From TrEMBL:
Keyword ATP-binding: yes
Family recorded in the similarity comment: Belongs to the protein kinase superfamily.
Protein's name according to its UniProt entry: Camk camk1 protein kinase
CDD domains for the chain: STKc_CAMK
Binding site residues for ATP: 122
Domain Protein kinase: 93-377
C-alpha cells in the first residue's frame, strides 16, 4: 500500500486548477508563470514516469474561477436536496491511517463500528463561512480534526463545492466509477465514504512497469471509455481524467479499475461549459480557449483519455515542459511528442486511435462510440 507521499488507493486528491489567482489563462501563454506568487494549488510532478524525458520537478500553482464554480454547485444543491445520512461520524466510524493527502481533502482508511468493514473516507474541511448554517445544538463538534499542515490554508472547500461532487456521483451507477456509500457532515468537515480500493493509482502501476503492453493498455482503456460513456449519457463531464484518478480495485489487476475524484465534474444540463479547470498535462485545448469566450462540452474528457492512453503506451506524457506556459502552448496546438523510438514498436491501430483522440478541434475529435468501435479495441473482452 502506498504511503501518503505517493497517494493511496482511494480518492487520491482534488484536481489541479488552471485559472491563476488574480490573473488569467491568457497570462500563462504570454508571461513567465514563475513570477506569480499569489497562487494556491500545487501541481503534481510527473517524475515517477518520466524515465525517458526530463523530470518536471518544478511545480506550478493554480486556483479556480471560484465564483463561477461555486454558483454551479449551489444550483446543483438547490435542485437536488439530499439529507446527510449520518451526522455523528465518530460514533459510527473509527479512523485509521492516512491513505492520501490532496489539495482540498485528506483520505483516511476507516472502519465501520457496526459491521467491521474497512472503507475509505474523503474528509473535506468546510470553509469557515459555511459553518454558520450548522446548529451547534444538533451537531456535536467531535469530528476528525484535519491538521493545518496537511492542507493549504486557502484550499478549504465551500459546502456547495462538496455537495456538487456528491450529488453528481449519486447520479452514476457503473462498475468502473467510484460509488458513494455514505455521507456524513459535522461542524468541521464533510465525510464522503466509499469502498476501499486496494490496488493504488494507475500512475503508480505505470511507474512500476515503465509502460504497458498494448494488450494491458487496451483492457484499461476500454473500461475507461465505458465509464465515460455512462457519465456522458447522464450529461455529466468529469473534466479531470488522468492517471492519478484511475484506481485499480486490487493490486496488479488491470481488469478492474474505477474512475474517481469528481471534484471538477459538472453537468451539461444547463448548456455548454465555460469554466477553465483541469490538470495542465491533461487539459483539452478547448478548455483553455474557453477563457476567451468559447464553450466546450464532454469532448474534453476524450482528449484527457487520449493523454492517459499515450502515457500508458509510451511511458511519458505527450505534452511536457518544465515551464507551464510552454506546456500549455503545446497543448493548445496539439503538439504531441511522438519522437521517441518506442513508437516504432506500437501498432498502427493504436497510433491511429491516439491521433483521433488528440485532435485539437473537438468537433473533429473521435466520439466515444467511434472509439469503442475502433479497430484497436476490437476483440477486447472484459468478461
Amino acid at each position: 500500500m502506498e504511503d501518503t507521499k505517493t497517494r493511496g488507493p482511494s480518492f487520491a486528491e482534488r484536481p489541479f486548477l488552471l485559472s491563476r489567482a488574480n490573473s488569467s489563462p491568457d497570462d500563462m501563454f504570454h508571461s513567465d508563470s514563475s513570477q506569480h506568487s499569489d497562487t494556491v494549488v500545487i501541481d503534481r510532478t510527473f517524475e515517477p514516469i518520466l524515465h525517458k524525458k526530463q523530470s518536471q520537478k518544478k511545480t506550478e500553482k493554480f486556483t479556480l474561477d471560484h465564483e463561477r464554480y461555486s454558483s454551479e454547485g449551489a444550483q446543483l444543491a438547490a435542485a437536488n436536496p439530499v439529507q446527510t445520512m449520518v451526522v455523528d461520524f465518530s460514533s459510527r466510524y473509527s479512523v485509521g491511517r492516512t491513505l492520501g493527502v490532496g489539495t482540498f481533502s485528506v483520505v483516511k482508511e476507516i472502519r465501520d463500528r457496526h459491521t467491521g468493514a474497512s472503507l475509505a473516507c474523503k474528509i473535506v474541511p468546510l470553509a469557515c463561512d459555511d459553518l454558520t448554517h450548522q446548529k451547534a445544538a444538533s451537531c456535536k463538534p467531535n469530528g476528525v480534526q484535519v491538521k493545518n499542515d496537511q492542507l493549504d490554508a486557502c484550499s478549504i472547500s465551500t459546502r456547495e463545492d462538496i455537495w456538487r461532487e456528491i450529488l453528481l456521483l449519486r447520479r452514476l451507477d457503473h462498475p468502473n466509477i467510484i460509488s458513494v456509500r455514505d455521507v456524513c457532515e459535522d461542524m468541521r468537515n464533510v465525510y464522503i465514504i466509499s469502498d476501499l480500493l486496494k490496488g493504488g493509482e494507475l500512475l503508480h502501476a505505470l511507474a512500476e512497469r515503465g509502460s504497458f503492453a498494448e494488450e494491458d493498455a487496451r483492457e484499461i482503456f476500454m473500461q475507461l471509455l465505458l465509464a465515460l460513456k455512462h457519465m456522458h449519457s447522464r450529461q455529466i463531464v468529469h473534466r479531470d481524467v488522468k492517471l492519478e484518478n484511475i484506481i485499480l480495485v486490487q493490486k496488479d489487476d488491470l481488469r478492474s479499475i474505477k474512475l474517481i475524484d469528481f471534484g471538477l465534474a459538472t453537468t451539461l444540463e444547463d448548456g455548454a461549459l465555460k469554466t477553465v479547470c483541469g490538470t495542465p498535462q491533461y487539459v483539452a485545448p478547448e478548455v483553455l480557449h474557453s477563457h476567451f469566450g468559447s464553450c466546450y462540452g464532454s469532448e474534453c474528457d476524450l482528449w484527457s483519455a487520449g493523454v492517459v492512453l499515450f502515457n500508458m503506451l509510451s511511458g511519458y506524457p505527450p505534452f511536457h515542459s518544465t515551464s507551464v506556459r510552454t506546456l500549455l502552448q503545446k497543448v493548445a496546438v496539439g503538439s504531441a511528442d511522438y519522437c521517441d523510438p518506442v513508437w516504432e514498436l506500437i501498432s498502427t491501430e493504436a497510433r491511429s486511435l491516439l491521433k483521433a483522440l488528440l485532435t485539437v478541434d473537438p468537433k473533429a475529435r473521435i466520439t466515444i462510440d467511434e472509439a469503442l468501435s475502433h479497430a484497436w479495441l476490437k476483440g477486447c473482452s472484459l468478461d
